[in-house]
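1st attempt posting a full record on here, be nice pls
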Amino acid sequence: MFMLATSTLTDADIVRRVQAGEGELFEILMRRHNQRIYRAARAVVREDEVEDVMQQAYVNAYTHLHQFEERSQFSTWLVRIALNEAFARRRKQQALASLTDVESDFSRDRAASMEEPQSTQPDPERQAYAQELQRVLEQAVDMLPDTYRTVFMLRDIEGLSTSETGEGLGLGEEAVKTRLHRARAMIRQSIRGRIGDAAAGAFQFHAPRCDRVVAAVLGRIRQGG
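the predicted structure (as tokens):
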């Protein structure tokens, strides 16, 4: 009943009430934006790191909630925090890894992807076919260079506007448009022609993972971060 009674509140309303002492309402914001934050983080880091990035981003947002001034949408502010955390984590990893190691990992991942057989037979089950398209899309997106992958994920998969994407990444709108155009060009036409409605369903953040992240963040908040 609690979640239902507060579900009609705007993000700004909830932020003000959390700032006023109703910290438990922060859960609503997390559940409301988990899918978007997952995709933003996943655009930068690998799957096995994304939940850690999300948790830290939410803790950072909660800790600095007083800095949200409603000049932009709360979701945009939250995406920017998640991207900052994801980029910071990646920079730390790059500082620890040699260029040779990074190139070796990329080559191995690319070889494994290219070795996977491509079925020419149509899948008899529409749902299974859609899932296969999502898998192909996710592989293609993961192969994009970092600067293009983040823009493609935020614009074409998550559906952010050009201005929202630019604000989140600290780019001008023309830069976003240019990178998006190049990202699309890097994905082979044969794959792009098969994406269709599957794009919106790619990189899903399902309920069990949502619950896990929410529980972890709430636990950290109660313990003081």
